[in-house]
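re: ur msg from earlier - yeah i can do the S-adenosylmethionine complex, just paste it... oh wait u already did. ok heres what im feeding in:
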Amino acid sequence: MRMRKKPNLIPRMDRCAAVQIKDPKGFKGKWLSENRGYSGLYLEIGCGKGRFTADTAVTIPDKLLVAIERVPDAMVVGMERVTDAGIENVRFIDADAAELREIFADSEVSRIYINFCDPWVKKRHAKRRLTSGGFLDIYRHILAPNGEIHFKTDNTGLFDFSLEEFARSGYVVSEVTRDLHINGPVGIMTDYEKKFYEQGIRINRCVATLTLEAKAVRGSYEEK
Ligand SMILES: C[S@@+](CC[C@H](N)C(=O)[O-])C[C@H]1O[C@@H](n2cnc3c(N)ncnc32)[C@H](O)[C@@H]1O
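and the outut:
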């Protein structure tokens, strides 16, 4: 997502400071003990402007939803949505998904949402895709056994690639659909998804579950 740097970014973020974690590495292993009252930790990677973040959070008040985004000009819109709606169970992190193992301890996360991540269509950029083997290895560490990755994309090539990568990394894939909204809107839409839906573009979705066996296989990509 390319966005112009907005001159008023800092005051906008300051107004919403209560929902941003500026030192996320300091929370590693302590996300739930430092935020008492939540029964689980969910993570959204690449939340963009946070429509899905805000709308999902209100449906899961007993979970802490952490949203990570590396473009603060997009993330601030999500921070404003959550702040203005008075939603309490969301925290935003301005960081790169490559750093996730420094932010979350082993098995600390029970669900990951990846919605409409950049497809990086050139083969030489495949490692940058958030569903490529290297990232799936990172998720294997931070996800609890039987933890889930909920994945949506409009890009068929990326979806095919992701299904292969999930299987290669030992995740069990379920709920596969190549036209999620064929019979009308299903679930909570992201900002991108809303636009695609209005244009009649088909949405692919699946859930990838980290089985106990797959959790036990460590560092397969790191060692290659
Ligand atoms: C195409 S946008 C989709 C945004 C949102 N999920 C939606 O569906 O509306 C992809 C988002 O992922 C973010 N992103 C891509 N790679 C990332 C990474 N490695 N770490 C954190 N955020 C990332 C981008 O900055 C961008 O905001």
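cool cool. The mean pLDDT is 95. ping me if u need the other ligands too
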